[in-house]
Amino acid sequence: QIENEYGNVAYAYGNSGKTYTEWAASMAVSLDTGVPWVMCQQSDAPDPIINTCNGFYCDQFTPNSDSKPKMWTENWTGWFSSFGNALPYRPVEDIAFAVARFYQRGGTFQNYYMYHGGTNFGRTTGGPFISTSYDYDAPIDEYGFAREPKWSHLRDLHKALKLCEEALIATDPQISSPGTNLEAAVYKTDAGQCSAFLANVGTESSATVNFNGNSYDLPAWSVSILPDCKSVAFNTAQINAAATLTPRFVQQSTGLDWRWINEPVGISTGGAAVTKPGLLEQINTTADQSDYLWYSTSVEMKGGSQGTLHVDSLGHVLYAFVNGRLAGSGKGGSSNSRVTLEVPVSLVVGTNQIDLLSVTVGLQNYGPFFDQTGAGITGPVQLKGLQDGSTIDLSSQQWTYQIGLKGEALGLSDGSSALWTSQPDLPKKQPLVWYKTTFDAPSGSSPVALDFTGMGKGQAWVNGQGIGRYWPTYIAGSTGCTDSCNYRGSYNSNKCLKNCGKPTQQLYHVPRYWLRPTGNTLVLIEETGGDPTKLSLVTRETGSSSSSSNNICGLASETITPAGGGFLSIACPSPNQVISKIIFASFGTPQGSCGSFSHGQCHSRRTHSIIEKACVGSRSCSVEVSASLFREPCSNSSSNGTTTRSLAVEASCS
């Protein structure tokens, strides 16, 4: 690949954008690599560069030449999170629908972004304001666990597509419309292979399709895959996957022994400081060597006065100190990084020191002219509403600048300094404090994280490695989240949200391979003020509690599975175990996931007794998923045929 989604921004550069696109393509081809080159989101990609699609859906995408394959280079399985925002998630039924539609309409290549979530360690987050976690609601989460039922449902989708492989690679689809919002695509070869895709792109009602002499029920917003043009191997809206218990975080240690060093306010690095008239833009000043830039000046007052300090900043976070004391702070957000701060201040007779600490939270990394998006204090900086009614504009006077904190210059992040204090009066809820402690790695091999409960905002290092920016006090808004999200209809990153009213991120991944068995060093720089004694070490485990470590789950919809049957099957993990108890069972519209299932609007009261009779006392059991067995649980609802009935079971093995 050459460039990345440049076509989305090229318009802003006019003819220069076109010239650059052609130059980049020519340069890439001239390297004579022997393999094709692609440009994603570049509809005018010059031959022989293949233009490709990125997005939530690419079934309607067409390359700019019939000689180029239809390629989907980024299928967004979720979305990234930003500090101060709720967490986006994407229902797997919609992802599967998008993938099936892409191959239904002649797709050649599809790649997931992301399939495995990750972590923005150190200062690598962009945005600005993108969180340290880049979990992305991916099929494999940030810690390496399968996210169910997303992982299993996509696995079953891939199995069904694999069954169609010979027909898919041999010919183009013949597409027809058997009814409103319905589409049939048939791949049929001269050698007799035949595979079909039946789609209902409507968002309201299920539909019945007559195809090749047979009748097929299609839920709304779903695709059925028929590898032999007869039998349904998979439907995108019907989840049929044995589920594991949702991974949980288990506290391992608290009450760590902390030491500290106070970070001085204002200019403290001597020769590293520079004095210039006026206010400097931050990124060009720091060259991104640090998140931090001090702006310091002073003002002479003939008499003491109350007033208001006004500061305008391009972002992203601002702390204002007057005569060494924190007067106030402000922060931007992912939708607007600018900060306007107005705080009351008390000025004394004589010299008053004004120290402003500007902090970046990742840099702009996409969009037209993103390289020109600045940060830091650009003014005005004013003292307003003084007792004599005057306003003093400080913007153009001499300012002294210091890149980074003194603790950064001293290398405190690796914990090796001899300056750490261990007196009993540990400072808490105080701005600009470095903290250090040591800990032993938890036993076992489970992934490790730090729970930053009690802390404000800052950065953290383990054995000198930056685990990222932490900010558990930036709380997501209280509205916009839903317990369950309707997968029907086009998805966008604001459609399905969770975690409203909670910290965007409270848990921060610490890779096992960074840890020693004993004597690991944790260093924090706390900006706003926190209580490190509340911080704890946790591990990521499967199961909801120690008593449920032998629990098993299953979730299946009323349809035919890739394995060939409309059944839910569960089995104890050990050959010497049997199913001893049914913890939860519901046929209808159950909600939640393994370990937290709950009854939905529709529920058959016969479910528990039927599952108990079929499963208890056996190592494994298999139960048909059908209304004829459990009886129709939604007959009195107003679903009008749109309800997808499922069976959810959680059982205990002993």
Automatic annotation (TrEMBL):
Keyword Glycosyltransferase: no
Residues of the SUEL-type lectin domain: 568-654
Top-level lineage group: Eukaryota
Annotated InterPro entries: BetaGal_gal-bd, Galactose-bd-like_sf, GH, GHD, Gly_Hdrlase_35_cat, Glycoside_Hdrlase_35, Lectin_gal-bd_dom, Lectin_gal-bd_sf
An example Gene Ontology biological process: carbohydrate metabolic process
One GO MF term attached to the UniProt entry: beta-galactosidase activity
UniProt catalytic activity: Hydrolysis of terminal non-reducing beta-D-galactose residues in beta-D-galactosides
Keywords for the protein's UniProt record, in alphabetical order: Glycosidase, Hydrolase, Signal
Group of enzyme by EC: hydrolase
Sequence ranges of Low complexity compositional bias: 635-646
One Pfam assignment: BetaGal_gal-bd
Region (Disordered): 632-654
Annotated EC: 3.2.1.23
Family: Belongs to the glycosyl hydrolase 35 family.
Name the UniProt record assigns to this protein: beta-galactosidase
